[in-house]
């Protein structure tokens, strides 16, 4: 009885699902299908794409060619919507990707920028690396639905950035690294308000940065490293408060590192090394960026002493302050506060005085490079040499018996043995009374050292 009652309902369900099925899978627009073949041929004409994939490309396509069907609302409004291409991925064939591989004479087909009205992602990885391929002048109408533009390691793809940047209202990721792009960053970039990532590293981009970059409030990642950018970094970039990573390494930036960077409160990675920043010292704002994990300033003429800014930086893992013209002592507070530090590079400066005894607090340290300074005294005997401790080029430094006999002396250079009478380091050279109050462990360990030395 119960079953009989269900029959009409079941029939209805079956009919409905048939309707829905046939409705959900309209064929790919024939013009788009033809354009896909042409684009595939210009990427690699040695593969017979048309005979390998003769049917509707939304039913059977090479990996990397991605279709989407119109949403139900589109369909009920238009009724005649077709399927469309939403992603095209090409390039390097490896065990990890089976995207259509590019041949040596691959070209960038202009149809890419005219035929696919619904394209959301364009991806070319290690595709253009032979004869020179110029960026076509991309039409103004291109890319209203583009969300990701990814061109990676295409050294022979050349052209000005202004040739490809259009009004990509929906663009979230612009990843164009290792190509032959030149020219300035166009002001227009400040209109692409959806951008969360800009990676333009390893091109030949030049000129000053447009202030309009500061409009991009959603930006989390800005990587302009290894280009020829010059001038000062706009103070307004301090407005990019969502930034997690800022990489400007290896350019020709001059002037002062903007103090407005203190507003980048979420920043975890900052690399400004290998530039021409002037004699303004290590920026104090670093001490106000609580989530900082890595900071690299090496090879700038910043000068000055290492400031006492480490109190709130327990999260810092890596510090690169090589070749900055630093003078004065290494602050003992670095050893005391930077409990998560794994790499410290202070080499090729003019630092003097002792290696702070407090460095023995650095439980997670893997490498300390202090080469080519003017440090003096003994190496704290309580400090374990882990992966690497590089000390060569400090004429005043000496090795005590423990380190002298250690097997793990790699990188210690030809340090002379300490003269026992003269050079026993102070057990507690960091005179932080308040610190001792708040940190019983510090007190305990310091007492331990005092005890050891007394017993000796
Ligand atoms: C690429 O070179 C091959 C020969 O090596 C040639 O047959 C093919 O037509 C060329 N393709 C393009 C797009 O120029
Ligand atoms: C749907 O059909 C209408 C009327 O024939 C036409 O104007 C419109 O361009 C079509 N839409 C698509 C996406 O083909
Ligand atoms: C470009 O080609 C050269 C020579 O075949 C190769 O060594 C190099 O790794 C290639 N570069 C990229 C980015 O694929
Ligand atoms: C951006 O920062 C600059 C200088 O730091 C400031 O004067 C300006 O008001 C800020 N602009 C916006 C839109 O927040
Ligand atoms: C130190 O590193 C550990 C392990 O990576 C992490 O769990 C911890 O949160 C870090 N401490 C700070 C203060 O960031
Ligand atoms: C190295 O430091 C000593 C004092 O410890 C000083 O007398 C000497 O001038 C310094 N040498 C250089 C090259 O700075």
Please explain how this structure is put together.
Its main location: membrane. It is found in: Cell membrane. This is Piriformospora indica-insensitive protein 2. Keywords: Cell membrane, Glycoprotein, Leucine-rich repeat, Membrane, Repeat, Signal. Pfam families: LRR_1, LRR_8. With 456 residues, the protein is an alpha/beta fold. The chain has a domain at 330-456: Leucine-rich repeat, LRR (right-handed beta-alpha superhelix) (Alpha-Beta Horseshoe), CATH 3.80.10. Helices cover 18% and strands 22% of the residues. The protein is built from nine helices and 24 strands. The strands form two sheets. It has a 19-stranded mixed sheet that branches. Strands 17-19-21-23-24 form a five-stranded parallel sheet. It is elongated, with a radius of gyration of 30 Å. The relative contact order is 0.05. The model is unreliable at 12-23 and 422-456 (pLDDT under 50). One 2-acetamido-2-deoxy-beta-D-glucopyranose binds next to strand 5. The site of one 2-acetamido-2-deoxy-beta-D-glucopyranose has 5 residues, from strand 19 and strand 21.
Main attributes of the structure:
19-stranded mixed β-sheet; 18% helix; binds 2-acetamido-2-deoxy-beta-D-glucopyranose; membrane; repeat
């Amino acid at each position: 009885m119960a079953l009989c009652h269900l029959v009409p309902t079941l029939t209805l369900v079956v009919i409905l699902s048939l309707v829905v099925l046939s409705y959900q899978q309209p064929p790919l627009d024939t013009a788009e299908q033809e354009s896909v073949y042409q684009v595939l041929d210009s990427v690699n004409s040695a593969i017979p794409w048309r005979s390998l994939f003769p049917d509707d490309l939304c039913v059977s396509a090479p990996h990397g060619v991605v279709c989407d069907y119109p949403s139900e609302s589109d369909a009920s409004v238009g009724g005649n919507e077709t399927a469309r291409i939403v992603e095209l991925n090409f390039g390097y064939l490896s065990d990890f990707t089976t995207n259509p591989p590019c041949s040596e004479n691959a070209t960038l087909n202009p149809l890419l920028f005219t035929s696919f009205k619904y394209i959301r992602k364009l991806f070319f990885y290690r595709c253009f690396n032979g004869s020179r391929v110029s960026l076509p002048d991309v039409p103004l109408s291109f890319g209203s639905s583009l969300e990701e533009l990814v061109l990676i390691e295409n050294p022979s793809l050349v052209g000005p950035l202004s040739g490809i940047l259009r009004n990509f209202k929906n663009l979230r990721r612009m990843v164009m690294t290792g190509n032959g792009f030149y020219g300035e960053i166009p002001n227009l970039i400040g209109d692409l308000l959806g951008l969360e990532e800009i990676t333009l590293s390893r091109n030949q981009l030049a000129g000053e940065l447009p202030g309009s970059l500061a409009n991009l409030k959603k930006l989390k990642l800005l990587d302009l490293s290894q280009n020829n950018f010059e001038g000062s970094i706009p103070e307004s970039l301090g407005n990019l408060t969502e930034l997690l990573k800022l990489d400007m390494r290896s350019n020709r930036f001059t002037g002062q590192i903007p103090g407005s960077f203190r507003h980048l409160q979420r920043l975890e990675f900052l690399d400004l090394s290998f530039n021409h920043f002037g004699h303004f010292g290590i920026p104090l704002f670093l001490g106000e960026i609580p989530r900082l994990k890595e900071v690299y300033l090496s090879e700038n003429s910043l000068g000055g002493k290492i400031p006492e800014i480490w109190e709130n930086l327990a999260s810092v893992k890596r510090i690169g302050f090589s070749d900055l013209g630093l003078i004065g002592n290494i602050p003992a507070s670095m050893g005391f506060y930077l409990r998560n530090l794994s790499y410290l590079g202070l080499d090729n400066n003019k630092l003097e005085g002792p290696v702070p005894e407090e460095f023995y607090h650095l439980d997670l340290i893997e490498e300390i490079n202090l080469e080519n300074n003017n440090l003096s005294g003994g190496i704290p005997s309580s400090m374990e040499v882990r992966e690497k401790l590089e000390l060569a080029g400090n004429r005043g430094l000496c090795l005590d018996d423990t380190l002298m006999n250690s097997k793990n002396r790699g990188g210690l250079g030809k340090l002379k043995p300490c003269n026992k009478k003269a050079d026993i380091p102070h057990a507690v050279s960091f005179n932080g009374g308040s610190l001792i109050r708040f940190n019983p462990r510090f007190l305990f360990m310091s007492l331990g050292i005092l005890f050891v030395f007394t017993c000796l």
